[in-house]
Amino acid sequence: MNGARLLKKIPFLSALSAKHLNEVFRLAEELSLSARQSVFAKRQDSDAMYIVLSGRIKIFTNSASKKRKTFAYLKEGEFFGEMSLLAGTTRTAAAQAVEASRLLMIRKKDFQRLLVGDPKLALYLLQTVCERLRRANEEIEGLLFRNILGRVAKAMLELGRRAGETRGGALLLKERFTQQELADIVGTTREPLTRALSSLRRAGLIEQREGLYSIPAPDKLAGLCIEA
């Protein structure tokens, strides 16, 4: 495995030289997780970030009423926990392996050595954190002001744009999601999620074949997000 090539995919690490990237890779630790194994819990002390080498990782939180909100499903080449590199805070969400997975763990103490040699790295890291905060603000706005149809529509569009492909004007989701997984992403329960999906299917705004969802006309579905 080419360490520099792997780490070059991480936005705030892409500015580093191949020499520095290989140094980060050398200091990193590889972890193997079984399905449903926890990476870390909410409010746990944070001292490392992670890069997904293989498998699928879920980032989520549970409310006092036992409702679950899933923020993301991460796959190969994606990363999480980067805020721990800037501050010794506790985790604001939990992370769990959905299936057997391999991770690369970079500890804060090792990463800070690089900051001394290249202060610009801190700026790139801050830009990444700001982008995550922007997305979090959008999630809060959606929960406060958008009805369930609009929230489901927005979630489907984001899943398609993040990890889907365009084919003949339609947007195809390349990953399979159960209704419970979609409900957790939207921040609702299965019953209202199922009703919303049925309404969107009847309107021809989403389709499902062999467990995969597609969006025939993304612009029309985006219009529902604005109106809702």
Keywords:
228 residues, alpha+beta, Jelly Rolls, Arc Repressor Mutant, subunit A, 2 domains, 4-stranded antiparallel beta sheet, 8 helices, 43% helix
Would you mind describing this structure in some detail?
This protein has 228 residues and is α+β, with helices and mostly antiparallel strands. The chain has two domains: 3-141, Jelly Rolls (Sandwich), CATH 2.60.120.10; 146-227, Winged helix-like DNA-binding domain superfamily/Winged helix DNA-binding domain (Arc Repressor Mutant, subunit A), CATH 1.10.10. Helix content is 43%, strand content 25%. It is built from eight helices and twelve strands. It has helices at 3-7, 18-27, 108-117, 120-145, 148-163, 179-186, 190-202, 218-227, and strands at residues 29-33, 38-40, 48-54, 57-62, 68-74, 79-80, 94-97, 101-107, 164-167, 170-173, 207-209, 212-215. The strands form three sheets. The chain has a four-stranded antiparallel β-sheet with strand order 1-8-3-6. Strand 4 (57-62) and strand 5 form a beta hairpin. Helix 5 crosses helix 7 (190-202) and helix 5 (148-163) packs antiparallel against helix 8 (218-227). The longest helix is centred in the middle third of the chain and has 26 residues, at 120-145. The protein is elongated, with a radius of gyration of 19 Å. The chain starts with a helix and ends with a helix. The model has no long low-confidence stretch (mean pLDDT 81).
